[in-house]
C-alpha cells in the first residue's frame, strides 16, 4: 500500500507546492483535486489543483514530469460533485466535467477517478436509482473507453435538515452498493472506501472490505468521533453528533480496518483526508494534521 493524502486540504498551494510538500514529508502519492475553476459551493469543494477543462498532452507531460521530479505518484484524480442533482442543467454540467476528468487520467498514466454517485435528496431511493440509470451508464461507458476505474466514495453528504434523511449521495451502504453494481454491470466502477462514514451509520467497515474487497479501487483514511453528549441530546435522527477527526482521534478500529484490507489483497493507495476542524486554523495546522496522521497510519503500513 502507498500512503498519501487528498490535495483538497492544501487548496491554497499550487500543484508543484503540493508535490513538494508530499515529497519532503515522505508521502508516496497524492489524490489530485480536479474541480472546475471557480468558487466552491461547500467546504473542501472547488479545489482545482489540476484544470482538466481543456487538458492537452503537453500539459499532461508537464504534470507527469513534475510528479516524477518529486518522486510522488498520483493515486487518482478527484472530483466530488452531485451527478444526480435535482436540476437537469446542473446534472449535465457535472457529467460533462466528470468525463473530462476521466479523459485526463490516462494522459497522466492514472487509472482511477474518484467521485460520488450523487442523489436528489427530494426523491426516494427507488426514484434515485431510476435517475442513476439515466445519468451513469454514459459516464461508465466513457470510463471503459479510457480504461479508467471510477471509485465511488461512500459519504452520505448529509449536513443539514434540508438534506435529511437521504443526503446527496446514494452509495452509502452495502445494500445500495450491490444494487448499483448490479445495475451498472461494469468492472470499471468500484469503491473509494472511507471508514469514517461507516462509523456513524453503525456499519462494520472490516466486514464491508471483506465483502467488497475486489471492488475497492482507492481508500480514504479519515476517522470519526461519536459525540455521546450530542447523541444523547438529539438521538440518531438528529444531526451533528458525529465529528470528522484525524486518524487515531476517533472511533475507527484501524487495526481491524487494515487487517481486512490486507486479507483481501488490497495493495493500492491509502490517502489521508483531513476534515478535522481542530486543524483548520492555518496552513501550518493543516500540514501538521497530515504529518500527525502519517505517523499514526505508518504503524499499519510499514
Could you provide a short overview of the structure?
40% of the residues lie in helices and 16% in strands.
Mean pLDDT: 96
Assembly state (oligomeric) = single chain
Q: Beta-sheet strand percentage? A: 15-25%
Order of helices and strands: EHEHEHEHEHEHHEEHEHEH
Q: Please, could you describe this protein's structure?
A:
α3 (88-107) links the parallel β3 and β4 (112-115). With 302 residues, the protein is α/β, with parallel strands linked by helices. The strands form two sheets. Strands 1-2-3-4-5-6-7-10 form an eight-stranded parallel β-barrel, surrounded by four helices. Strands 8-9 form a two-stranded antiparallel sheet. The chain has helices at 15-25, 57-70, 88-107, 125-146, 174-184, 196-199, 205-212, 228-234, 254-263, 283-297; strands spanning 2-6, 29-33, 73-78, 112-115, 149-153, 189-193, 216-221, 223-226, 242-245, 269-272. The chain has one domain (2-300): Alpha-Beta Barrel (TIM Barrel), CATH 3.20.20. α3 (88-107) packs parallel to α4 (125-146) and α7 (205-212) packs parallel to α9 (254-263).
Layout of strands and helices, then pairs:
Layout: E1 2-6, H1 15-25, E2 29-33, H2 57-70, E3 73-78, H3 88-107, E4 112-115, H4 125-146, E5 149-153, H5 174-184, E6 189-193, H6 196-199, H7 205-212, E7 216-221, E8 223-226, H8 228-234, E9 242-245, H9 254-263, E10 269-272, H10 283-297
Parallel strand pairs: 1-2, 1-10, 2-3, 3-4, 4-5, 5-6, 6-7, 7-10
Antiparallel strand pairs: 8-9
Helix pairs in contact: 3-4, 7-9
Amino acid at each position: 500500500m502507498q500512503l498519501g493524502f487528498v490535495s483538497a486540504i492544501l487548496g491554497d498551494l499550487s500543484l508543484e507546492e503540493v508535490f513538494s510538500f508530499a515529497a519532503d514529508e515522505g508521502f508516496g502519492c497524492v489524490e489530485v483535486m480536479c474541480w472546475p475553476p471557480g468558487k466552491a459551493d461547500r467546504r473542501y469543494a472547488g479545489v482545482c489543483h489540476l484544470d482538466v477543462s481543456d487538458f492537452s498532452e503537453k500539459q499532461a507531460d508537464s504534470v507527469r514530469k513534475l510528479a516524477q521530479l518529486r518522486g510522488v505518484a498520483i493515486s487518482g484524480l478527484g472530483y466530488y460533485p452531485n451527478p444526480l442533482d435535482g436540476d437537469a442543467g446542473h446534472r449535465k454540467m457535472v457529467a460533462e466535467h466528470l468525463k473530462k476528468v476521466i479523459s485526463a487520467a490516462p494522459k497522466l498514466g492514472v487509472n482511477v477517478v474518484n467521485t460520488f454517485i450523487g442523489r436528489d435528496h427530494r426523491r426516494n431511493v427507488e426514484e434515485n436509482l431510476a435517475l442513476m440509470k439515466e445519468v451513469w451508464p454514459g459516464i461508465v461507458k466513457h470510463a471503459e473507453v479510457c480504461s479508467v476505474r471510477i471509485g465511488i466514495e461512500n459519504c452520505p453528504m448529509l449536513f443539514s435538515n434540508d438534506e435529511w434523511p437521504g443526503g446527496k449521495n446514494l452509495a452509502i451502504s452495502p445494500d445500495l452498493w450491490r444494487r448499483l453494481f448490479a445495475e451498472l454491470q461494469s468492472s470499471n466502477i468500484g469503491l473509494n472506501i472511507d471508514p469514517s462514514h461507516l462509523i456513524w451509520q453503525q456499519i462494520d467497515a472490516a466486514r464491508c472490505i471483506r465483502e467488497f474487497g475486489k471492488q475497492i479501487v482507492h481508500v480514504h483514511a479519515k476517522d470519526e468521533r461519536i459525540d455521546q453528549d450530542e447523541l444523547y441530546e438529539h438521538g440518531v435522527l438528529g444531526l451533528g453528533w458525529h465529528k470528522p477527526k484525524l486518524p487515531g482521534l476517533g472511533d475507527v478500529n484501524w487495526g481491524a480496518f487494515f487487517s481486512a484490507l490486507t486479507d483481501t489483497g488490497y495493495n493500492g493507495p491509502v490517502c489521508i483526508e483531513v476534515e478535522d476542524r481542530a486543524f483548520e486554523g492555518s496552513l501550518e495546522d493543516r500540514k501538521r494534521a497530515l504529518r500527525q496522521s502519517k505517523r499514526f497510519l505508518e504503524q499499519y503500513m510499514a
